[in-house]
Specification:
Layout: H1 3-36, H2 40-63, H3 67-84, H4 92-108, H5 118-137, H6 144-154, H7 182-244, H8 247-302, E1 304-306, H9 308-311, H10 314-325, E2 329-334, E3 339-341, H11 342-363, H12 367-372, E4 379-388, E5 392-399, H13 406-415, H14 421-426, H15 429-433, H16 456-466, E6 470-476, E7 480-488, E8 493-501, E9 504-509, E10 513-520, E11 525-527, E12 530-535, E13 538-544, H17 545-548, H18 557-560, E14 563-571, E15 574-580, E16 582-590, E17 604-609, E18 615-619, H19 621-630, H20 637-646, E19 651-655, H21 659-671, E20 675-679, H22 682-691, E21 696-699, H23 708-717, E22 726-730, H24 735-744, E23 748-751, H25 757-767
Parallel strand pairs: 2-4, 11-23, 13-15, 19-20, 19-21, 21-22, 22-23
Antiparallel strand pairs: 1-3, 4-5, 5-7, 6-7, 8-9, 8-16, 10-14, 11-12, 12-13, 14-15, 17-18
Amino acid sequence: MAPKDSDVIKKLLAIFRVEADEHLAVISARLLELERVSTDAGRMPLIEVIFRETHSLKGAARSVNLTAVESLCQSMENVLSGLKRRAVALSPDICDLLHRSVNSLKGCLAAVESPPPADAQSTLAALTGQLDDVQRRAGGKKPRAAARRETSSRVPAATTSTAEDPPPVSGASLADTVRIQTAKLDSVLLQAEELLAAKLAAGQRVGELNAITALLAGRRKDWTKIQPALRAMQQSLEKDGKHNGSGHKAQPAMRLFDLLERDNEVIHSLEHKLTAVVAAAAQDQRSLAGMVDTLLEDTKKTLMLPFSSLLDLFPKLVRDLSHDQGKEVELALQGKEIEIDRRILEEMKDPLIHLVRNCMDHGIETPAIRVKKKKPPRGTVTISIATKDGNKAEILIEDDGEGIDVSTVKSSASKLGIVSHGEAEQLGEQEALALIFQSGVSTNPIITDLSGRGLGLAIVREKVEKLGGVVSVETRRGAGTTFRMTLPLTLATFRGILVRVEDALFVIPATHVERVARVGLGEIKTVENKETVQLDGRAVALARLGDVLGLPVKRTSGEAKGAAQILVVGVAGKRMALLADEILGEQEVLVKPLGRQLSRVRNIAGATMLGTGWVAPILNVHDVVKSAAKSAATPATAVAASRETTGKKPSILVAEDSITARTLLKNILDAAGYRVKTVVDGMEAFMALKTDTFDLVVSDVDMPRMSGFELTAKIRADKHYSALPVVLVTALESREDRERGIDAGANAYIVKSSFDQSNLLEVIRRLI
């Protein structure tokens, strides 16, 4: 075959694949409807549509020399013809055979740049034989060639849709639609998105012009203030010149006054002209912004498809899984007409398939078990889609099965070392459910080809968050489970929060930001070796973006003012407060990939061009949260630096009734460069505060005479010590004890079971 002929065949095969997918989708959907209809009057129109789609597929396969596909379609057509003539009785076995034929055709046409491999062709041949057997048993004696000629003369071998075929996408007629390669549409969209940079730059220029106008206006106001004094001086010089005859001496000063007057007039003229230019530029910017927004919106719509284009494959998937597992399951689809970016739809195919399989395998019980539980024998899986906030889609995958056993999730997570046994026991239901998205966590004790490896839900979360969405799960033990996913309707552009960390600018996707707040530095506490802030009555972990991103540490502008700006982010069921030097505002962001050389950079999801021309990295919030959790505490090098600059050792009071623990703490703090005094209980500690000066108190909780809680409360109640930092180090690790310590006024609460000297020194370094 000549290279040119080979190229033609490849193009024809690519076109055939698209056409074949459309025919097979219709055949599969109508077969499912056929199984649900019980009357001949309802069946015949469906059989006719399936027959014609099969015939069209056969003709298309013949045109690209796929003889095995053509033969199977011919045998399907013969059986369907028998069903039309009522010579073949419709039965579950025949329906299964037709479904298997469709599955095999889909499989061998998945990559049809070349003829199907030998094993696929043998499968097609076996199915062809089974279909021929059905025809022969029904009394069909005609040879296949004769049958082919007869059907060919009866139905035109055209590949276009017929009057009874389903309409093209969105109900448009053929005259209203045109086929175009998606690669071309992607290229058009990318070029349209580039105009967003021009829109942002135009807005930046308008802002700069407004700043110049304000500067000139300020200059004119200053002139207005000094103008009376200058005129008075001018008049005084003129009088002196007339009386003393020294007018020539005053001429330089007079010329200076004239020059200043002309400069003022020029500035005034410039201000008027600049005001007109700014107004015109602002009008141009608004026009450009409107056109760019409209163009982007219209271009995005060309790449949007209804969810039905993806969800139409699920009825057959559920049918096949029900058949394999011996379960009875009904699939309910809602909101199929809602449109979303084709690229998101493609990325979500595998996650949705996994979640539906999860519902089928983990959730829905067998009919016998459901009857014992007084449930209908047939279970229900529901996929529902709804728009949210105008620019998001919310996808719910629900089942009415047995729900998730939270204790099993905790056990699986603790065995993998994701959480300790003690931590697992203290987790609430929602916190525990979030663990199922961790890699390896599974509630199925048996590994099968369908589930049990604990990888699927981790992949689902990764896919959803990569698309800028969030996923969560809710369960009702014995009543069912709901997976909830929120996704943007379009890709590439989104709203982002621009922040400054040290001298660098970063963008945080707004979809992950729950709130922005300003907190006093005194509100930052340390609980279990981690900094926290109180939000809505709950402690939220705090991470400093500069530390997480590994930027050189400087004194932040917020800290200089005794306050800090934070963003509370939520991802994978976790909340964290991120401390930034400055939060600059929210804006539209165009995502740019980092390129193949930087395909995966920790904490960075991409980059964007700001209106100023600066490039700002876009943070991967999931990575940032993980990095913050893993960041190790640094030794107390700051103590040594402080000692070198001031020549004075910070002083710490240690209250601990155990001599072993007391000695350990003293040795750690002595070695770190602190001056340490130890006492045996809270009463003695409070007396020591009255006779000496300390920079910080480290106290046990459970002590005789006065506990650490009582000591902390007493310190806070005394105006002389109310600002003194207090660190509680204790074996009491329940949530109630931690909350009691914070309520008493402790700045940090360190549990001895997770005690690490570097953590203690890091906490102390931050407090003094």
